[in-house]
Design a protein that fits this description.
13 helices, globular, Aspartate Aminotransferase, domain 1, 2 domains, Aspartate Aminotransferase, domain 2, alpha/beta
C-alpha cells in the first residue's frame, strides 16, 4: 500500500489546480467559462511558419536559450512595445510562461525565503514558491481588485526575496497604473529584492495602458508568452527577460528541466512577432464586446461585478458563492470558484469570456432561469 512517506513533502503540500479540475471535468456540451484560453485560431501566417519549419526539417534541438532570430525579435519587441532594453543574450525562450515563472522562482528562492503574492492571484504562483521550499506571503487586493504598493511595502521582511505583479491580472482583470508600476520598481530597488512581472495579457487592455516595470528598474524579471497574444496556448512558447546576472542563474535550471523550447514553435513565434498586429487587435476588440455583454448580464442578475479593464476574466462578487458555483456547474456552465486563487477569492467566482458571444448569451439565459 502506498504511503505518503515515500513522496516529497513539497509535492504533498500542493494540490491540483482548481482551474484544471474544472476544465478536465467539463462535459462535451458544457459552456466553458472556466478556462483562460482564447477561442480563436492561431493566425494563418504563424501556422504557415510552423509548417515551413517542419518541411524544412527544423525539428532538432536548438540553442538552449532559444534560436537567435527569435531572441533578436523579442529584444526589438521589448524596446518597441515595453520601453526597456534587453539584449538577445538577456532573454531565455521557454516552454510557455509556466516554465518562465518556474525559472524565475527557482533561481531566487531558498527554503524559508518569502515571496509576496496577490491574494487572490494566479494559481501557479503559490504552488511554485512552495515547491521551492519558500513561504508565500499573501497580499490582499484593494477595493478596485488591484495590488497596492503600500500593502506590498508593509509586508516586506528581512526574509523577502521577491514579489510578483500580474497586470493585467488573472483572475480579476485589474490593470495596474503607471504610478503603481513605478512604485513597485522603487520598492524592489530600495529593498534589494526582485520584482517578477507577469505580463502575458499585455495586449488585452480595454481601458488604460500597459506599463512594464522593467523600464524603471533593473531588479525586474519579465515573464511573457505568445500563448494569449497570438492564441498559441498549445504551442507552449514563452520567454523570460532580465539583466544578465539573472539570466546566468535561470539558464542553469532551464538546461536541465527543459534543454530548449520546441523548435517548430520558435519559428512560429518569429513569424508572430515580426508579422502583422491586426489579428491581435481583432481579438482584443471582440474580447471587449464579450466583456461588456457578460459583465452587463451578471450585474443585471445581481452579481456585483466591476468592469475589468484587461485580460478576459470577470470576477463577480456573489452571495452564497459556492452554492451559485455548484448550481451553475450542475446546469452545464463551467466557472471557477474564487478560492481556487487564494483565500482572498472567497465570495467571488471567475468567469472567462474567451468564448463566443452566443455561448455567453446562452449562459446568461441559463443563469437567469436557475439562480
Amino acid at each position: 500500500m502506498m504511503t505518503s512517506a515515500r513522496f516529497a513533502q513539497r509535492v504533498l503540500n500542493i494540490d491540483i489546480s482548481g482551474i484544471r479540475k474544472m476544465f478536465e471535468a467539463a462535459g462535451s456540451n458544457a459552456i466553458n467559462l472556466g478556462l483562460g484560453q482564447p477561442d480563436f485560431d492561431t493566425p494563418l501566417h504563424i501556422r504557415q511558419a510552423a509548417i515551413d519549419a517542419i518541411n524544412e526539417g527544423f525539428t532538432g534541438y536548438t540553442y538552449g536559450a532559444g534560436i537567435p532570430e527569435l531572441r533578436t525579435a523579442l529584444s526589438s519587441k521589448f524596446e518597441r512595445e515595453n520601453n526597456f532594453n534587453v539584449t538577445p543574450n538577456e532573454i531565455i525562450v521557454t516552454s510557455g510562461a509556466s516554465e518562465a515563472l518556474e525559472l524565475a522562482i527557482a533561481s531566487l528562492v531558498d527554503p524559508g525565503d518569502e515571496v509576496l503574492i496577490a491574494n487572490p492571484g494566479f494559481v501557479s504562483y503559490n504552488a511554485l514558491v512552495e515547491i521551492m521550499g519558500g513561504k508565500v506571503v499573501p497580499v490582499p487586493l484593494g477595493g478596485d481588485l488591484s495590488l497596492r504598493p503600500e500593502d506590498v511595502l508593509e509586508r516586506i521582511t528581512p526574509r523577502t526575496k521577491a514579489f510578483i505583479v500580474n497586470s493585467p491580472a488573472n483572475p480579476t482583470g485589474a490593470v495596474q497604473s503607471r504610478n503603481d508600476m513605478k512604485a513597485f520598481a522603487e520598492i524592489a530597488d530600495d529593498h534589494d529584492i526582485t520584482l517578477i512581472s507577469d505580463e502575458v495579457y499585455e495586449h488585452f487592455i480595454y481601458e488604460g495602458e500597459h506599463v512594464s516595470p522593467a523600464q524603471y528598474s533593473d531588479n525586474v524579471i519579465t515573464v511573457n508568452a505568445t500563448s494569449k497574444t497570438y492564441s498559441m496556448t498549445g504551442w507552449r512558447l514563452g520567454y523570460v527577460a532580465a539583466k544578465q546576472h539573472y539570466i546566468e542563474q535561470m539558464i542553469k535550471v532551464h538546461q536541465y528541466v527543459q534543454a530548449c523550447a520546441n523548435s517548430i514553435a520558435q519559428k512560429a513565434a518569429v513569424a508572430a512577432l515580426n508579422g502583422p498586429i491586426e489579428p491581435v487587435i481583432q481579438m482584443r476588440d471582440e474580447f471587449r464586446q464579450r466583456r461588456d455583454l457578460l459583465v452587463g448580464g451578471l450585474n443585471s442578475l445581481g452579481m456585483r461585478c466591476d468592469l475589468p479593464r484587461g485580460a478576459f476574466y470577470a470576477f463577480p462578487e456573489v452571495d452564497d458563492y459556492m452554492g451559485v458555483v455548484n448550481t451553475l456547474i450542475s446546469n452545464g456552465i463551467v466557472v471557477v470558484p474564487g478560492t481556487a486563487f487564494g483565500s482572498g477569492g472567497e465570495g467571488y467566482m471567475r468567469l472567462s469570456y474567451s468564448t463566443s458571444q452566443a455561448d455567453i448569451k446562452r449562459a446568461l439565459m441559463i443563469m437567469e432561469s436557475v439562480l
